[in-house]
Amino acid sequence: MSKNTFRGGVHPYEGKELAKDAPLTPYLPQGDLVFLLSQHIGKPAQAVVKKGDEVLAGQVIGQADGFVSANIISSVSGKVKDVRKCKTAMGTSAMGIIIENDGQYTLAEGVGVETDPASLTNQEIIDRVREAGIVGMGGAGFPTHVKLMPKDPDAIEYIIANGAECEPYITCDDQLMRTASSEIVKGVEILLRLFPKAQGLVLIEENKPEAIAAMKAACQGTKVTVRVVETKYPQGGERSIISVVTGRHLKLGLLPADLGCIVDNVTTVRSIYRAVAFHEPLMERNFTVSGPGVAKPCNLTVRIGTVMEELVEAAGGFKEGTDPKKLISGGPMMGFPLANLQVPVCKNNNALTILVDDPVEDAQKEMTACLRCGRCNHVCPEGLTPQQMAVAAERKNYDRYENKLYGLECIACGSCTFICPAKRPLMQLFKQTKAEIMAAKRRG
Questions:
Q1: pLDDT confidence band for 436 (50 / 70 / 90)
Q2: 234: preceding bond cis by omega (within 30 degrees)
Q3: Which end of the chain is least crowded, N or C, by CB within 10 Å?
Q4: Where are the beta strands (DSSP E) in 88-245?
Q5: Closest among 46, 203, 48, 72 to 135, alpha carbons compared
């Protein structure tokens, strides 16, 4: 193993104390559910139901359309009200299936039937993960079955269950590790079946002592171990994890498997276990509603497709006497601002953060010219030079940005923006620049 931390990084206010001890509580949706067909990296799924169809919980309603794609599963029983374009958390539109919940949650045939994972072949395990529609649930949304089919399975050295949960305010993974530690370990053991030469690790930041204790207890007598690392943002990023565990750098264009690693969020790993052992498709996920603007910060187990407005109500609504100015899908470092709460929870959404103040708006009022202090260079986990990248980006010097400054290696973690005393929106500039460069490449 390498070290206990990675290069750079920052220490934002954690806000974990608001919800870290709130137990995971099941929440059943009250209104219609919206299932976007693009809840994953890759090609959107294709609707296989139409308006008026009756559906069951656990039924495939969107079929994966290609290798890098994922099934969409209904989390409720009821009737399809429509198949049309719907708003996403990012403010764009995507095709979605709207289902009227009948409140019965009648399961499709075969869902929940227990199977001994040892009785399944490796291919059957992968097929179950594919059928279940499992994707990376830490934010990326990469189809998990694709991740489990690397070019050279024998080259995989580490199976890493990511329990870092480094984003401020978010605590649902912490709670999952405390309460479902044995299922997470069993999920890692299933993955070790696929990669028998690998070592199984559960990586957790040191600010989660209860989760660490629970996971260590669950690992006893297994080939899985807990790796405790320094609390520092963005420890939960794949590149940071691989750097800490292996000492290797994941360059642009490489996959973790190219460096001998399979990295999955702990929620994803637990979902793998449920899919393989109980034929349980991905219908629900854990979700944190927190921030200084919410009355009762909480951790919920929610049905995918639930509209976020309902979850604010489940958390007691906005805190009395406040007028929240910022609603964020995810956490404040890498999340997306929401125009409203009429958007559904997707597979890769893990939180709703409600802020009383808008830090972006406040920063704009204080922004000055670059002070050339170099703090952004110091905290960049990728070893980039944000100060110079910003100059190249503002001048539209894309060749220098990409080929001299390696700007496309930016992971948009926001560390540079967080640390900048001049309050410059560096991450936003870099995301826009990357989008423009990639668009130009597509045009040829």
A1: very high
A2: yes
A3: C
A4: 93-101, 158-163, 199-205, 224-229
A5: 72
